[in-house]
Amino acid sequence: MRFTNNHRLMHYPVAHHSGVVCRNVNLTRVTKRNTLVFAVASLLGIGAVLIVMFSSISPALLYGARSAPQRQLQRTIAENLKTGATQQRVLDFLNREHLEHGPAERLGDFDSDTRYYPKGTLIVRAIKRHTASGLIGFQSLQVVFVFNENRELVRFDVRPVYTAP
To answer: Does one domain contain both 76 and 111?
Structure first.
């Protein structure tokens, strides 16, 4: 093999029926192909790194978690509902504040909230939807009101819940 003065063309012998001939290969095309392959491999590598990074990031960035709406909702509830408030007063508050809620219920064996409260606890669940938005979803705030056997408010908890569109 030998290089020409141009260094972009490489001559190499090719067998032909009439004898040996020289054939030119354009190195620019080969270089462009190698550059393209390198660029695609780099992008795939960067993509893999980003996937690993996003999988380890807290939901705060991805779903838009914000603590200000959570503190504000906690403050509003604490100012309007004191410990010992009746279940009806809590339901009236939820209606007045336009918070979605369900009826009073006792936690069963397969309820997801049994990790926070014992089985058989009387609760009312409410939710304030889309309090923040992030890269791939929304943060909503779930409120759980806990009542004693006399249906009086014992406590309430506000937790973020993350959903994707």
So the answer is: yes
Do 28 and 93 fall within a single domain? no
Per-residue pLDDT of the chain (165 residues; tens, 9 = 90+): 555 555 555 555 555 555 555 555 555 666 777 777 777 778 887 776 666 565 555 555 555 556 788 899 999 999 999 999 999 999 999 999 999 999 999 998 778 887 888 889 999 999 999 888 877 888 899 999 999 999 999 999 999 988 887
| 26 vs 150: CA distance, rounded Å | 88
Q: DSSP states of 74-142 as a string?
A: HHHHHHH--TT-BHHHHHHHHHHTT-EE---EE--TT-GGGGTS-TT-EEEEEEEEEEEE-SS-EEEEE
Domain count of the chain?
2
